[in-house]
Write a structure and sequence with these properties.
This protein is α+β, with helices and mostly antiparallel strands. About 20% of the residues lie in helices and about 30% in strands.
């Protein structure tokens, strides 16, 4: 797999940023779960591609990264019916997100998951659409309702893992060049998911709270609504 200098623009600085396995009480303030919207791509072909990349870079990665393959669309916050903090995620914000998505009238769309690259803190697989801009539209609809997390810089990707230490950028990209090239994996996206994770566990598994089905613009709950 060829990794060109153009790939380096995702990587800030000259070294990786280490991730630390610890509780972050100063962030979660005792709140248990953090919510976000994502595209669930936990399919066998994608899982194989992620696992191959994870094994190839294993010496650089934090152990026990257990999040299922997904493409983050927008961070939401900590679900709450009694908001006290700026990053509490409330029913009004959720309702606005659903309303914006329904106005967008998006239909199922196809994506491709392909080449390996890296941010400063994590390696990832690139995500591309075929003939649509649905991911960008979804990101805009969802992020605009939770301004505390809104950022104009957005790169759709599938995270492979988290770096466990500080290594030179060139060492990482040199290793990536040796990663066996394979064809991009196609996925038909028919739903997006409101997910959550344990805020006290870095890289812990994801739970699906609800799915938004694009074809019929309807919500399917898998857990009780956190806003009731």
């Amino acid at each position: 797999m060829a990794v060109t200098n153009a790939e380096h623009h995702y990587f800030d600085g000259l070294h990786t940023l280490p991730n630390v396995r610890r509780d972050f009480p100063e962030w979660h303030l005792g709140r248990s779960r953090f919510a976000f919207w994502a595209i669930d791509v936990d399919f066998p072909d994608v899982g194989q591609k992620v696992n191959a990349a994870k094994q190839h870079l294993a010496e650089f990665l934090l152990d026990d990264y257990n999040r299922q393959p997904h493409i983050t669309l927008s961070l939401c916050g900590f679900p709450s019916n009694n908001p006290r903090h700026s990053d509490d995620f409330v029913a009004k914000a959720f309702d606005c997100q659903i309303a914006w998505m329904r106005l967008a009238c998006l239909k199922p769309f196809e994506i491709k998951i392909g080449t390996l690259s890296s941010f400063s803190s994590a390696p990832f697989l690139h995500v591309h659409e075929r003939g649509t801009s649905s991911i960008a539209t979804l990101h805009s609809c969802l992020a605009s309702s939770v301004q505390v997390y809104f950022s104009p810089a957005y790169t759709p990707h599938v995270t492979v893992g988290l770096y466990a230490g500080t290594w030179p950028r060139e060492t990482i990209f040199s290793r990536m060049k040796a990663f066996p090239q394979s064809s991009a994996t196609s996925c038909l996206i028919q739903r997006i998911s409101l997910m959550s994770y344990d805020a006290a566990e870095i890289g812990g598994p994801l739970q699906t709270i609800a799915d938004y089905h694009l074809e019929h613009a309807e919500i399917e709950w898998h857990e009780p609504s956190p806003f009731k």
